[in-house]
Amino acid sequence: MSSMKHVVRPGSTIGMLGGGQLGRMFAIAARQCGFRVQIYGDPEESPAGQVSDRSWFSSFADQDALRQFAQHVDVVTYEQENIPVATVETLLQHVPVFPGPELLRASQHRLLEKTSLRRMGIPTADFLKITSESELRKGILDFGGDAILKTVTLGYDGKGQTRVGSESDCGAIWQSLNVSEAILEKVVPFAHELSIVASRFADGTCSFFAPVMNHHENHILDVSISPSALISEHQTLEAQQIARTILEYFDVIGVMCVEFFATHDNELLVNEIAPRPHNSGHLTINACRSSQFEQQLRAVCGLGTGDVSLQTPAVMLNLLGDHLQHQSPSAWQTVFAHPEIHVHLYGKSEIRLGRKMGHLTVIGHDVVAAERLGRQVRAGLMGTT
Ligand code: AMP
Questions:
Q1: 99 cis-preceded (ω within 30 degrees of 0)
Q2: pTM of the model as a whole
């Protein structure tokens, strides 16, 4: 069932694999358009489960539960890339799943991802497959004594990553990773990081949100800005072309995000692909007529694209557990007093350091002023102003 032959109408039920904040924002968009949503695979009271019609708490390997779930939904999509490919393949025997397994498989394995990109002629950081301490030692030398060692699977937000240099204790680093293969990447001395969220529809058409400039803190996305004066028209077109090539290569129907490094020579290198909406696209909820979640809904339901043009400049600031540990009611009053600030919280009750709890989107014609305001009110929540 790789191509869509029918339209999934409002009133139908969409199955969502994963219950995190991306599933939650999808469910909100889907419900607004009159769809029902059932969540599969996350614990009770999940961010998505709170705003959905039903949650299934079974494992992704539970064949019986997957079959039953498939009977209750009209189409399935997902909100994270660590859904086992076998789960999607099981579901596909009963119900359409978008995007299909090809992009999912590549995006959950860094070596396969980068090898596929290379095959498409898309530039990435130089990389090597590493299977032993001696390969690691040699790779570091090949990369000029400075590299990043990453696990091939289950790495996100900087998890499973170690910066290694020629002075590093390769034996200890290799052993602590405790895997049979890893990827070593040359450190890219990037000028900035950007991303593009793109959608592809059953008829093969693609649509692209404006590219977004991203700042990370401790490898976790902190602030996203769109539009950015640092992203040229030429770079925008190049990012779109790369995204289109990837969407077509994997025959994607759905939403995908491509993260890039922009070098000082204005070259774009792909860092990562996500087979779903992305944290850097959250500002589209308030800055575009059709958000990245509505685009996901439209694509998986066989409906056409919405208007993805930026209606207003916007800045998104993540709210991590770190920002919300000491939140005072008066600081929230200040946040809500600003008409240009949109508050998004994900309904997570336990506040942990590094945990994504929500985000703020600040709308305004001057993105520099919007970022300043966002940072100021976020610092206020932390009690540091
Ligand atoms: P990742 O989990 O691979 O997306 O990496 C998270 C962040 O680590 C990226 O957004 C970059 O800020 C940084 N990073 C990862 N790989 C590299 C690299 N090869 N060169 C420079 N910075 C990197």
A1: yes
A2: 0.95
